[in-house]
Amino acid sequence: MQIKALDRKALRDMWRMRGQIAAIALIIASGVAVLVMSLSTLESLDRTTAAYYERYHFADVFAFVKRAPVRVLPQIADIEGVRTVADRIMQMATLDIEGFKEPAMAQFVSVPQQHQPVLNQLVLRQGRWIGVDRPDEVIVNEPFAHAHGLMPGDQLVAVLNGRRRALRVVGVALSPEFVYSIAPGALMPDDRRFGIVWMGRDALAAAFDLQGAFNSVTLALYHHASLPEVLQRLDQTLATYGGVGAIARADQLSNWFVSNEMDQLRTMSSILPAIFLAIAAFLTNMLLRRLLAIERSQIGLLKAFGYAHWEVGLHYLKIVLGLALLGIAGGCLLGFALGRYNTQLYADVFRFPLLLYQPSLAAIAIAAAATLGSSLLGAASAVSAAVKLPPAQAMLPPSPPIFHRSWFSRSPIGRWPDQATRIILRNIGRWWPRAALTTLGLAASVALLVLALQWKDALEYLAQTYFFDAQRQHLAVGVAEAQGPELVADLARLPGVLAAEPSRIVSADLSVGPRTHRGGIIGVPVNATLQPIYDDLRQRTLPAPAEGLILGSFLARKLDVQAGDEVWVSILEGRRPELAVPIVDIVDTYIGMPAYMNLEALQRILGEGPRVEYVNLLLNTDEQAELFNQLRGLPVVSAIMVRQAAIDSFHATVMEHIMVFITIFSVLACVMGFGVAYNSARITLSESGRELATLRVLGFTRGEISYILLGEVGFLLALSLPLGCWLGYQLANLIGTMFNNELFRVPMIITPFTYGFAVLIMVLATLVSALIVRVRVDRLDLVAVLKSRE
Question: Which of 100, 128, 175, 365 is most buried when burial is the number of CB atoms within 10 A of its CB?
């Protein structure tokens, strides 16, 4: 096919400017890659979870009760909108695993002996189903099995309702209900210390004296069902039997974590690519304006030969389109690779049994539209101004700009710099709009680096605050049923225990007008020291008030209350009292939405004597192994939370993910900084080549010429660094605010090291671009440059 003359010219122009075009295309590719990676991962996770939930019948509603007879099930089934009802038994227990010194916990869940449950079915990965009349056979979840090397045929020992029992593993499975399995009171999964164990219904009922009864029920609803009405009716039905409040699928812990990850991906895909594409549009405008200035006479000739305005404009827009298409193609390929890698990371964490990843056509379309739109927008003004020139005027050299001495050059300060430095300052002052945009582009690169590196600072600070400042115990012991105060004394006498402190968590609805929160009230001793009421922001410990509540700030904002207001409390346990309670104070917390109360005041509201559910222990760690051995044998203990294990899990799960994020965005930020600096220096070289050659003839050395050329970039970089640090703080604050949710908030912490490291990386990236341009300066053909006409 014959190529038109203007198209051949466009290809030659692109080849001549290949360095600058490659730099801009890299920036476009970076933005496209972030967008495609985020949207492809989001679409894949959404498709995978939807298929997983549907295929294995993930329930729509979950409710827990102390003990309800099976005769209640028909009443639940009669609730309007309920399609399927599945009752079961769920109990916590400790495990004794050979070769593992610490006690492990397990959530035991009953399943039918002969077939899959109706809802929340299992994905059997190894082995077989539980046999009929084989009460000691169990199925364990795959992450826990892999962490301990458990295979079908292995044994583990569990303490079920105070009795040690040897169990035989016959299968390894996954479940949509436990995509993200977290122990009570934990922040992150710990597959070595917490697992899910499925056991035959009859065997588990006999172990916990729940024959003919259940303590958990799940529902599937019709599409037309009213979820709030179903939850209300279900709560009313189970209230008599000790129901603690039904929750929808959206609030189910595992599903909530998966949904939250998707929300964070949406946030990332909506903000970060826009920064790259905006910088690319600015660079495209700079490049095209310089090209049009160089080819001013050629534009006049084209018009003189009869080419219309739109043909000339289209010719230059094709260069922009070619540049944009290069960036889109490279960005899509990189985005697909990063998307697959990112999706696999999520699949490894969530343990999906299937992974439905494919490049997102929607992501390609959105990335292409955004890139083409921003690139053409950046080129439109430059092309429009050039094509409107009459042919005769276009063929003449442009009128030289009128210069005059500025106030700076006339001032005493203006005489201090040497001659080369004054040339740099004059160039910046004369072309200040371009200098300002270059500074902004470099500052955006620094800001992205600060944003990426800030996550490590924030999460390390969060870990320090949550695991050390707010929690000073080494161990927390939980019991299935609230016990009397003698439990604290018994645990305090165990080997290695230096101090023991009780606490209790009671399920409750907190309401203020139409605003309601279903959560829990944490009862703590008046002067708690092991797990006190701690204000993360002000770094202070508060005593539990004699009466009233202390709320976390996120919960206070949700209820729209402040200290001095009252909140209506509906306890969901025991006698289920309801009363108005004053808010004494508000504390800032980064984890959860706590509501604290004096333990004695909470017990008075419940109308019962001193009772505890959790005991925090301070240990002599030298005797920890002996303590664990004795805790395994205590029938009352159902949960053991080791603080160091939680810290290790946090670092292994979160910090590993965040380092991938930091690496990807640090590289992309460097690409953007390199592209901005390189294009700025190349355009300056193109514009000032004749002047620089003249200075060389007049006796300036190559070093002095390089200083004049690259000093401008260095000066703009120096201006951009503090601006970039400030923008990075603002961007990190914006992203952190958008990532905040009911489970955790991102602390706005940026260390001096992060600022310094971001600055160092950007200086190095700029130096690399400067060295490349310096090579071109050294190769200047003085005769050829001086013979050229402006």
Answer: 175
